[in-house]
Amino acid sequence: MTAVAELMDYADVVERFDPVLGLEVHVELSTKTKMFCGCVNEFGGEPNTKTCPTCLGLPGSLPVVNGKGVEGAIRIGLALNCEIAEWCRFARKNYFYPDQPKNFQTSQYDEPIAFNGYLDVTLDDGEVVRVEIERAHMEEDTGKSLHVGGATGRIHGADYSLLDYNRAGVPLIEIVTKPIEGTGARAPEVARAYVSALRDLLRALDVSDVRMDQGSLRCDANVSLMAKDATEFGTRTETKNVNSLRSVERAVRYEMTRQAAILAGGGSIRQETRHFQEADGTTSGGRVKETAEDYRYFPEPDLVPIAPSREWVEQLRATLPEMPSERRKRIQTEWSLSDEALRDLLNVGAVDLVAATVEAGASPDEARGWWVNTLAQEANSREVELADLPITPAQVAEVIGLVSSGELTNKLAKEVVQGVLAGEGSPREVVEKRGLKVVSDDSALLVAVDEALAAQPDVAEKIRGGKVAAAGAIVGAVMKATKGQADAKRVRELIIERVGS
User: Fold this and answer.
1) Domain that residue 332 falls in
2) What's the pLDDT tens digit per position in 209-259?
3) Coil, strand or helix: which one is 245?
4) For residue 134, which of 181, 258, 292, 389 sits 20 to 30 Å off, Cα-Cα?
């Protein structure tokens, strides 16, 4: 049984230590084929059905570079304000592990295609932090190992392992930051905000589906601590393959409190990889972290160097879309949003969702109301990102349209949204299946009004006496009788007409 790690109170951590972060984000490109062969590049499928001699590393097979993969890498580099190499090449990263049958990964080492960039990141309160980018390099993804029989899903304690090479060879871009210093208590927040901003940028470029739940965007979080009077970085740990924004923040915070407790007790930090445990927000030790020398990098002899012409680079620069930060400024002006309202959208990750809902026909105010309030609460209760809810901007716009047309009340609309989230179909299909359409037939409403007035004659008398506010009790009775499917405004009008007649 694994011992529970000692932790230091977070306030004490930031009082005694300065955190230093290094974030490595791996993004799978959405090319049609893999990076060095013609196998289809798509998620899932029966194990080992999307393979060939090249991505299986069989003798005699030779790789060929995917041009679209190189194009995607350059566009990412440009969007991150990087310099693009005039000449670079691939290297072999050697290691012995069954997820890569060649026993090496085709990657880039000392000659990446993009380097020396930055990404400006906006925190919840509007503060902007510039994260320096060390490099963005091309490589191939590995296969997947499934360890069966153990309690943790890790190789230790497992009875046996299964291997699926469908993912082996998928185009991968690794984006590595320079050391991120000076963030203090906000280090976990900065880590989350950076990965979020990077995900938004990659989505805008349309180079990846950035599905963290499917592994097409993964973050390795490096964390070390320096004593306040120290001049050198501390020993780092690398928490591997963190696959949600919330988990990135939790992993950094946990490592800070764990490392601080060890250092304060006179211990030393082991340079190692660690695994994040979603269930309790802790990390557990993995293998000792290798150095570059351990991987025995050398140039890939089967691939020619890549020398993108300056003309091609500028052509690709011209294809870059409006960047998320620029788009937000434009949207703020067009929608007349205050800084606070924009921050609310940013904090729940709703800017692009609201924009897409507006593009689908809703008004900005109505779209904001649904995403920032109702749907954000739903995402919080499910502990998922807002964009991961099983409802699209087009469906939200459809719900808003049904309310605007009078076919739904706001209360009924919330029921429809719940039906969509439950997988019952489109908004109109949910309306039909659940029978939620507003009762707009005056004759049917009058029957309910007459019954409510007859049941509460004293209230009817008050209304006749001029106490119009008393009509609320009758409206409530009618709404109950119609299961909330009546238009409350029209019901009130009918009550006044009926009592006055």
Assistant:
1) 322-434
2) 999 988 999 999 999 999 998 999 999 999 998 999 999 999 999 999 999
3) helix
4) 258
